[in-house]
Amino acid sequence: MTTITAADKANILSEALPYIQRFTDKTIVIKYGGNAMIDEELKEGFAQDVVLLKLVGMNPVVVHGGGPQINELLDRIGKKGEFIQGMRVTDAETMDVVEMVLGGHVNKEIVSLINKHGGKAVGLTGQDGHFIRARKMFLKGASSDELVDIGQVGEIEKIDPSIVSHLDAADFIPVIAPIGVDASGESYNINADLVAGKLAEVLKAEKLILMTNIPGVMDKDGNLLTKLTARRIDELFADGTISGGMLPKISSALDAAKSGVNSVHIIDGRVKHALLLEVLTEAGVGTMIRAR
Ligand SMILES: Nc1ncnc2c1ncn2[C@@H]1O[C@H](COP(=O)(O)OP(=O)(O)O)[C@@H](O)[C@H]1O
Ligand SMILES: CC(=O)N[C@@H](CCC(=O)OP(=O)(O)O)C(=O)O
């Protein structure tokens, strides 16, 4: 076993200095996936990391998922969760569960944890100030003109960044549940990766970090792909290497990179303090997505 001395600790701390200098005043959008909310210790660690980033001058904005947590409540009421192309088929009853779990339980749990560690978190859904405008999403079917209806699932029409920017400027930490709304006030279930990617774009974020339950994007032999560009991603889509929940994740990561977000990463949220390691150290964790 290696022992960490006081000098090692000091070195580790001072390694953070150039990153703090580089990212002060910069917006960092963090997608906290439901699969990375495994236990209390990890959730506490995540909340501490977010508070630390805020205290050293960055603007962390949290977008959370909660897919497994929605499945759990659906199970309890005897309903089975169904996904097509990484998107949940959402009938009216499922939408009620989605709003309860994402807008209620998961959102408030993260807000409360961040506040417990000294941050000032504020929970929002797209219903607040109608800031995430959505329209019904249809998936592409097997033939080119076939569209698949998956219920009350939304795609983003636009995001108004002003509420989030006001909260940032007043030292609050926005914690956002991926629920959108249309002009008539109808709610839509939106994949959290899509909300995080679009939010990073409209906030002109420096970084987008997608925290999930796998070390990063893997090739067919299970090797971690540390860097991916648009061309390689097209190949991985075409040969079926990327599937399920990784489909919307990579698409929104690539869209964010193409729209000017400087660094986009998919990292393993099951590693304690993965967020700090990504932002403040040299340890390159996970997969970095670049437009070119
Ligand atoms: N090529 C791939 N590399 C890594 N994960 C992949 C790949 N293709 C599909 N996946 C799946 O995508 C999952 C991550 O997506 P998802 O379950 O939606 O996570 P989250 O809840 O964090 O958004 C992984 O756990 C893995 O099962
Ligand atoms: C349309 C759609 O699939 N919405 C997702 C929203 C939550 C989410 O994205 O959660 P994770 O990030 O934990 O997977 C769902 O209902 O599961």
UniProtKB/TrEMBL annotation:
A GO BP entry: L-arginine biosynthetic process via ornithine
Domain of life: Bacteria
Domain Aspartate/glutamate/uridylate kinase stretches: 26-268
Keywords on record: Amino-acid biosynthesis, Arginine biosynthesis, ATP-binding, Cytoplasm, Kinase, Nucleotide-binding, Transferase
A molecular-function term among this protein's GO annotations: acetylglutamate kinase activity
Function: Catalyzes the ATP-dependent phosphorylation of N-acetyl-L-glutamate.
Record-stated family: Belongs to the acetylglutamate kinase family. ArgB subfamily.
Name of this chain's protein: Acetylglutamate kinase
Annotated source species: Chitinilyticum piscinae
Gene transcribed to yield this protein: argB
